Request: fold
Amino acid sequence: MTSAPPTTTKHPTGIVKALGEEPVFKPGDPVRISIRYPVGHYRVPMYMRGKRGIVELILEPMAVNNEEEGFGRNAGSKGYYYRVGVSLTELWPGYAGSPQDRLVIEVFECWLERI
Amino acid sequence: METHDHDHPDVHQKSAAEPAPRYYEIMETAVRELLVEKKLVGPGEISRQIEVLDSRTPALGAKVVARAWVDPEFRARLLANGRTACESEFGISFYDDTKLIVLENTDKIHNLIVCTLCSCYPRPVLGLPPDWYKAKPYRARAVREPRAVLAEFGTDIPEDVEIRVSDSTAMVRYLVLPQRPVGTENFTEEQLAEIVTRDAMIGVVRVNLENRSTP
Amino acid sequence: MNSTENLVKRLPNDIGGLPADRIQQIDHELLPWEKRCHALADVLDFHKIINTEEKRRGVEQLGGEMVGKLTYYERWIVAFAFILFQKAILTPDELAQKMKEVESRYSRSTL
Reply:
């Protein structure tokens, strides 16, 4: 599958970063957690699928996707994890607590969709 | 899920005649010995790691919290990077190569930590988690009805205080920095450390001068 | 969705938000073998013989019945055995022989 070539991000110093080295999302970005069903191992709980939240924090440094680590990949193909905040009223229709109550969870980049 | 352990209350008794090991213990011994025989694991590695585990208890986390209460600059460093603050100022190593984010409770936010998928826990700073933290009721309910869960621990959080639940899924571990209770203005750092409980650093209770829960 | 699909899609450890009982504030001091098992898990991760995520995946793949009925460290040691077989580090027969030998030490010593 081909897609449009990614635009090159040039740092003021002239340094070009490798593909995937820059986080795709930044704090404050609204995101949706993808709805999909990996077979055998996953680290995004079912209750998060399809829910909307806000990126709160980029977790540094990049790390291996732990869904791949689960099958013995200890190095290579690193990416970013983010702390994503979701309102409990978004997660649980009819949530009885305060509307400002929130859940924050680490999600690997490939699970996040921009909205 | 964890009830099986409690079918065997006699296991804590140490008698002169060592009881014959059960199936899973035999398996553990066999796996360990085979790995040592194959030189995949060094002969002293397991016993050394047991010493590491035994050296980590909630008292360690309590010292970190007490320091944060008395030293605003340390508090700032701890909140900026929990791991490096614990490493450089308390010598706490992160043997499991996890990161640590310290979550500060305030008048407006009450933090609670959970691992719904397994049992992620800040072991380098608090030691091993209690059974209830690893069992289904807490893991299933903390994310869905945190206020009801807190009530079962005797903790009532006012409606205008935000509950913030952190579900741990990857390489970050969380430690709650509880609020310093009123009436402790004259306490020394050591006295403060004595009142900080494990459960307060998980976020299920407050640090309370009257009701000290089990550490 | 047919009824078996969900057995594949939802892992047995994925319980966040499911209905559950009141919290019993239980704890127990680890038995010596449980603590050894925990130390073994750490050491296996240090050497990346079985990393922490593989251990989690191994426990999940024990399936719902074992995840529900075995205790915490019982799940771990069985998962370790399966993963070590998959990686051809141990063979099933090797482990069976060793377990028999370990058991015989105790039956002899208690005579």
